[in-house]
Amino acid sequence: MLGPVILAASRSDRMRRVVSAAPVTKPVVNRFIAGESIEETAPVIEAMAGRGLEVTLDVLGEDITDPAEALLARDAYLRLIEALTPLELGARAEMSVKLSSFGQALPGGHDLALKNVTAVVEAAAAIGTTVTLDMEDHTTIDSTLAIHTELRERFPETGAVVQSYLFRTEDDCRALAAAGSRVRLVKGAYKEPASVAYQDKAEVDRAYVRCLRILMDGSGYPMVGSHDPRVIAIAQDLAHRAGRKLDEYEFQMLYGIREAEQNRLADEGHRMRVYIAYGTDWYGYFMRRLAERPANLAFFLRSLVSRG
Q: Is 264 a catalytic residue?
């Protein structure tokens, strides 16, 4: 029951100040955040590539309130692409973007976000990689999917994310599971009302498997975003039943979580992509990681006690 409380706290400026000021916070945040700049993060990317892992990179920031901030977010991704260029990793290092950081929630935000993200997708394509549009709360889905559709007309490998805890997601999966599409399936990490989302964990898990089956049986490229051992085993079974080869789907996990499992899957020949977030605006991302798994919260609380 702590998950909804933590998700509510992720939107609280007061809690942001309290958590950010705690001396223990930064060492714990470092488990999930690779660095505050691309210069700090680049060695992490190279080390993972050396272990056979692929990455998707998220420059932290969301819920911006000014068009100038949206331009700063765009420029941060352009600097990331510039830094990736000499590494020559191609699609092994893609990017994940939140359209809220590109101005989606501002007046005229749909067009503003489309303009800003298009510049990033163009630059990514120029170095042989691509972008996946992260999904946020349910009020943004129609806009995000419309932008995804428009981007795919020029850049067909642009990815989308769907969240199994939403009632609509099975239909979204059917629409997205077309040839050439890239779809990351996650359970969901925002506090959503009972009118649009499953509230029971078991229901969310069952919905995840139903959505995963749709994606595996479809013509697109499924990206399995989960740390759950049972889900990973089910994904492997569904892929086998659908006749998929190991390079026709991939697993995705967060930086700092289940690293041994990440290495095991890569060693077995699976495509294993690690979601690496970096930047100074880490609070909302960090709180959602605590809400997703009790083990993450326990890790944070143990650190508070041991360092108190």
A: no
